[in-house]
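User: Can you predict the 3D structure of Small, acid-soluble spore protein C2? Sequence below.
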Amino acid sequence: MRTKKDILVPKSQSDLDKLKLEVSNEIGVKVPHGSPTGKWGHIPAEKCGDVGGNMVKKMVESFERGLVK
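Assistant: Sure. Here are the predicted structure tokens for Small, acid-soluble spore protein C2:
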């Protein structure tokens, strides 16, 4: 059975990580570079939500541009 945290398209993980870094740099969130687990435990939930929200916004914009083409 699929859980909530399962990755639907495993090949997309590296692209999502790149997008997360790009967005976090744009909005000024310091990313835990070199963290062995890649966890964002020291970053407040509000900032993580800002990064996630902006990631979704960029993905929707990209999808909409693809629909127009």
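The two ends are 37 Å apart (CA to CA). The mean pLDDT is 85.
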